[in-house]
Amino acid sequence: MSWPKQLIASLALLVALPFASRAEVVHVGISTPGLYELPTEIAQRKGFYREENLDVRKVVIRTNLQVAALLAGELDYSTVSGLIARASIQNLPVKGVMGWFDKPLHILIAKPNFKRLTDFKGKRIGVSGLGSAPHIILREALAQAGMHPERDATTLAIGGSGERLAALVAGTVDATPLDVAYVEKAEKLGLVSVLYFGDVVHTRLGGFGVSMDKIRKQPAQITRMIRATLKGVRFIRDHKPETLAIMRDYLGVSSEAAVKVHDFAMRSLNTDGLVAKNTMDTEIRLAKEQLKLSEDIPEDKLMDWRFLKEVLGQK
Predict the structure, then answer these.
(1) pTM for the complete prediction?
(2) What is the pLDDT of residues 55-104, one digit of tens each?
(3) Nearest to 67 by CA among 24, 105, 96
(4) N or C: which end of the chain has fewer CB within 10 A?
(5) So what's the architecture of 106-199 in CATH?
(6) 22-103+203-312 maps to which CATH number?
């Protein structure tokens, strides 16, 4: 008996169906591809998510829409940790469950005529969104330079790093904090680095935020996501040559730039998925200032560490 060729092809296709088609689909929100969410890219490329039967699909979505997307169930996880923290402080039903960078990985990029922060008095500075990580670190840096963050500079919500770079080139803004992965591209366009924010501000960058509904209904999935992503975090530390190759491909940087980006990452990386106490304290203080709150805010209002502790084998 001979089988029709079309039937044989169909059977072969069924046998060869990729694992991802049978895995649990998970949507992860990012504001733009960048170093801040690199652990998720590594976990995806190295198959760490597949090992947990997860089909992770990253979705580029504006920073200021990610909380609403979590609450609507359109996103399962958000990587814009600072915004999730402020939303939880404002009693929205979201929580952070994991971190990975204890310092911001942003550099203030500007036209060549700017040399220091005080040069931006009366100027326009672009951020991804009001209340976003770039906005918060900018405010803190301006304050440390003796400037009033709201009166002495105009802050404009532009979008992700790529959009902010385009706005800077077009002259819409005079400067913008950019993910360090974009610095090489900025310098090729004749722009200059004014300040590395990690030298003056201790706030976290990257991590996972989820809705309280997700915590109630799918706690096991959260644990699996954290376990897989933590492998991606530690891969950055333990496998430098391959990490550099991934950086070159994913971030679109040269070999030389990849080494610099990796060095910045290692200065900030928290390989346990936690957040340093001074970083969390600073983040809470800055959120209180921005939201004009006076009451004490405990860390557990922002973070639910039980899933990470389960992965780490902690009580």
Answers:
(1) 0.82
(2) 999 999 988 899 999 999 999 999 998 889 989 999 999 999 999 999 88
(3) 96
(4) N
(5) 3-Layer(aba) Sandwich (3.40)
(6) 3.40.190.10
